[in-house]
Amino acid sequence: GWFNVIAFAEEIVEELQLISKQNQLIVYEHTGTSAQVFLDHNLLKNCIINLISNAIKYSGENTMIQFNTKLKENELLVEVKDNGIGIPELDKVNLFEPFFRAHNTGDIPGTGLGLNIVKRYVGLMSGTVTCQTEQNKGTTFTLHFNFNQQ
Ligand code: ATP
Ligand code: MG
């Protein structure tokens, strides 16, 4: 249904700030003239929680996580950017496969299911998900939704 993406995002940040590491700040910024979007609220929330939880888990203390929503007339971009461990070049192709974990996760726990769920939920909402990453520098995941496709 229709909902206000800014209020929705601010609520998620408030919840996730509680599980972040010491001095790990989640900074939310938004652009757009309107705030109303038509998407499945629960599916989108689950996707964003997965991405921000990863950003928290795969980056250190005293770092910033940038969370942005950019709403244009017919499209919404959702970005989650961290300055964490990044993902090795060779692992990028497998990121969305179930149970896949990159080779630099060390003793950081996980099952490798979060991103597979994100990909499937984004697909259910007719969107796409992309990843830009550099090992030891950081990672940005972007969700893209276009509203003028019927
Ligand atoms: P979980 O099922 O609990 O989410 P997970 O975090 O290991 O476990 P995914 O969220 O599916 O699984 O992520 C898959 C892999 O992609 C991770 O194991 C990690 O190697 C890599 N990854 C995902 N997000 C990031 C990130 N923000 N920074 C660095 N690596 C990441
Ligand atoms: Mg995860």
Which stretches are low in confidence, meaning pLDDT under 50 for 5 or more residues running?
none
Bound molecules: adenosine-5'-triphosphate, magnesium ion
The fraction of residues in strands falls at 25-35%
Secondary-structure-derived class? alpha+beta
Report the average pLDDT across residues: 96
β-strand number: 7
Number of helices: 3
Write the element-wise H/E pattern from the N-terminal end onward.
Answer: EHEEHEEHEE
Separation of the first and last Cα atoms: 16 Å
* Morphology: globular
User: What percentage of residues falls in helices of 4 or more residues?
Assistant: 25-40%
Protein name: histidine kinase
Organism: Pedobacter helvus
Strand-helix topology:
Layout: E1 2-4, H1 5-17, E2 25-31, E3 36-38, H2 41-57, E4 64-71, E5 75-82, H3 114-124, E6 128-134, E7 138-146
Parallel strand pairs: 2-4
Antiparallel strand pairs: 1-3, 4-5, 5-7, 6-7
The structure holds adenosine-5'-triphosphate (ATP) and magnesium ion.
Give a structural overview:
It comes from Pedobacter helvus. This is histidine kinase. Residues 1-149 form the Histidine kinase domain. The chain has 150 residues and is an alpha+beta fold. It is built from 3 helices and 7 strands. The protein has a 5-stranded mixed β-sheet, covered by helices on one side. The chain has a two-stranded antiparallel ribbon with strand order 1-3. The radius of gyration is 15 Å and the shape is globular. The two termini are 16 Å apart. The structure holds adenosine-5'-triphosphate and magnesium ion.
Quick tags:
150 residues, alpha+beta, five-stranded mixed beta sheet, two-stranded antiparallel sheet, 3 helices, 27% helix, 30% strand, globular, binds adenosine-5'-triphosphate, binds magnesium ion, histidine kinase
